[in-house]
Structures are given as C-alpha cells and as structure tokens.
Amino acid sequence: MATKTKKKATAKKKPGNHSGHHHIAVPKSEDAKLSARPIWQGNLRLSLVSCPVALYNATSRTSDISFHLLNPETNNRIRMVPTDPETGPVNRADLVKGYEIAKNHYVILEKHELDAVKLETTRTIEIDRFVDENEIDRLFWNDPYYLVPNEDPEAYIVIRDALKEAGRIALGRVVMHTRERIVALEPRDKGIIAYTLRMHDEVVAPQVAFEDIPDKKPDARMVQIARKIIDQQEGDFEPEKFKDRYEEALRDLIRRKEKGEKLVTAEPVEESNVIDLMEALQKSLKGKGAAPQSSARRRAR
What we know:
Ku70, Chain: A, Domain 2; alpha+beta; 22% helix; 7 helices; 7-stranded mixed β-barrel
C-alpha cells in the first residue's frame, strides 16, 4: 500500500510501497452544504425599518482535495513557524501589523487603532439605492451569500416582498474581512441572496485588455459556419452535469496509490496549430451532431 504513515525521526530510508490491511477512504465529492456558522451577523436596514440578519456562504469547497506538506524523511507534517530573520522563531500572538511605505520601512498599526476605523457598516447593511439588474455589469458581480433572518422574520419578509414587487436589486454596504464591500440584494424563493460587488478600481476596463486586438472583419462564411457549430451544441444550462475532471482524476490517483497499484503515465497529446481555419471549421461542423434543444427553445423558433 502506497499510503505513508508517520515514522520515527530516526528512520534513514524513504519508505516504498508495501501491502497491508489499513484502508484510508478518499472523501467523495458531495453536494455543497450550508455552513453551520455565519460569516457575518448584524442588521439589514431600509430607512427606519431594520431586522437582525446573518450571512452564510452560498458556495462551499469542503469536498475539494487538499494536501499537507510532509518531510519525506520522517513523513511528519511540517509546521509553518513565524520567524524573524535576525532573532529566530517568534510567537504569532505577539505580532503586529505594518504597512510598508518604503523598502523595510513600515507604519505600525495597533489593534485598537484598527478597531477605531470601524464603520457603521461593520454591523449594518444599509440599503441606499435600488437599480435594475441589467444595469450591473457582470464584471462587477463577485461572491454570492445567503442573507437570512436571525430572529423575528417579519421585517425581513416585508423587505423581501417589496424587492420582488419592485423588480429591483437593492444596493448596500457592509464590512467583511476588514474591507467595506458593496452588496447587491436579490429576492430569491423565500429569502434574499447577497452578492458582493467589486469596486470600480478593482475592475480592469475591457478596452485595456483587448487593446491589441486588431479591428478586423472576419470572413463572413467562417462566421456562418461557426454559428452553425454553436447552434449544434446549444442546450440548457445543467450545472449538475459539469464535473471537475481534474479533481476526479486526483481522487482516482489517490485510490490507486493507496492500493499500491503501479501507475502508468500517458504521453501528453500534442495539439497542432490551426493552419487552415476554414478547413478546421468545416471539419468541426461535420464532426458534431446536433445537441438536443429544450422544448421552450424549439417552440420559440
């Protein structure tokens, strides 16, 4: 079995594969679950109406495979010890925060000084604007959270239903992870989803990224063939069918190594550069069968 167990520090040789009866289960990928603890608690306020709420992550990565760093001589998990280059290891609890203003020159900030910077939005999501969802560029949408009532949900339900009737997205501010973020509140089912939005200075303008792409009109025939390929592969968005194939391959690798199987590495497939774009498009069109379309789309056509 290829699984390595902790050895005594006196061991001199690296362990090889060996058989045995000890089995280590590789965690299976499962549906995401709501975390037991909220990441933020406070109040949601619309003018003079407020209610206690909590934010929970709408996504989870708990089923992801993660690795520990080990000393290959002992199989001990290494420790990341804070170290001063001059005096050696230091106690993490004694560390302070500093902002570098020049090479090796810092402004030191104490905890009480940082606490004094706290804004009202540290404990309150203050709604101050309502916009149409289509007005928010998708470049600005960030992470989703579930905003749920913490106590009596009456005021929460009033705000939720008012948003539904208005057909608008509410914008507010909240301090999360020591930063003030804009949040977009969207009513969904019985609750409200809160999306953090990126600040304007965080988003690179598309014009900057695409500046070097020439203003060139492509061959209309190629565009038509590409359109047909798109139509062939059109279908519904079904996220449950999308799998992380790299993660699945990692899980399979771990299982096989744990069983002591001999691993065979496949040669990488060389990808050829497209020489004749028209020929490549035509081959792609012939090589793909029409993807099933939803009944709603077929009726619309």
